[in-house]
Amino acid sequence: MDSSMPSTPHASAYPIGKPGQVWGEEEKSLWLNKQVIQRSYAEQVLALILDPASISANTADPMETTATQSNAHPEITSALELVHYNTLAYNTLHQGASDYPVYLFKSRHWDETKPNVLITGGVHGYETSGVQGAIRFLRTKAQHYCQHANLIIVPCLSPWGYETINRWNPHAIDPNRSFVHDTAPHDTAMTQAKAQASKVQLSDVQEAHALMAALGELAVNFSLHIDLHETTDSDNAEFRPALAARDGTSYDNWDIPDGFYLVGDTLKPQAEFQKAVINAVNAITHIAPAGEHARLIGVPIAQFGVINYPTKALGLCAGMTDATYCTTTEVYPDSPLVDDENCILAQVAAITGALDYVIKNR
């Protein structure tokens, strides 16, 4: 998540590019060449959502599984249908990368009397609990909630980001500023001239536009969209300096909130809904207290543990639908008070808390 509220600006000291100059293709290529595969999407994600028996006998790599070979993992309820909605073609773009199949799960028997719910994880691939929280919900809670709602669950939108522990995609673009229907990602506060110069092809933001296309074909009107994220210490250490270097601007160090918080929508804050989600998560982990001037990441709090963003205007994943209720979770995995399991459980609690509220208040 990003703050639009500046504090003390810092000139970018990032090792790529020159201060005050927007990156060109040379700088983006230098950045891409510095990225290293650090973990396996196949082993840590696909192995948890695909049936091992459906993976091709000719390869031990689930990445090579085709849509026709894929069935859902047996621990995922049969009430959900596995859909291979795209393959992100990065094999020739970055050494060690693959062509990544991406999947969603949807209710097999759609019931027009039930609310339609979208759950997304891994828009930022480095935010681990968002991915693993979506998977944990799939394997432990989805069967129950399929009785009460039509579900679409997307565990990991950004496999390359997951493997390289990265916020951006290989084109140095933030997918979570790219959920728009034009070709200009909204992941920067550049001037209009710079924004015009930065226009990219839809194929450069495959993570966002592959899902948007898939959902467009389904033509679903959602009651709820919950998007699973983290705020991490690496936001200050790496990603904000990189953003400033890329865009030729200064950057502001955040006071990283110690605890869980939510980001609602400025135009439809749904305060009681956000409160219900916070209460559900508070039973699992601690909620971030407001910092100086009653703010979180520089944004005034709307209520305990909640800030609001203009999600559509910023091209955020949470704003890509017209859902009545939408929220973005923010887990803080670097807190000394939590571990990986607690972070995953917090994401699951947020999902179930959101679902319980929407089901009860139809």
UniProtKB/TrEMBL annotation:
Highest taxon, organism lineage: Bacteria
Co-factor requirement: Zn(2+)
Pfam families the record matches: AstE_AspA_cat
GO-annotated biological processes: proteolysis
CDD domains referenced in this protein's UniProt entry, alphabetically: M14_REP34-like
Protein's UniProt keywords contain Protease: yes
Secretion signal span: none
Peptidase M14 domain ranges (all copies): 65-362
Keyword Protease (UniProt): yes
Keywords in alphabetical order: Carboxypeptidase, Hydrolase, Metal-binding, Protease, Zinc
GO molecular function: hydrolase activity, acting on ester bonds; metallocarboxypeptidase activity; zinc ion binding
Family: Belongs to the peptidase M14 family.
The protein's name in its UniProt record: Zinc carboxypeptidase-related protein
Organism: Shewanella denitrificans (strain OS217 / ATCC BAA-1090 / DSM 15013)
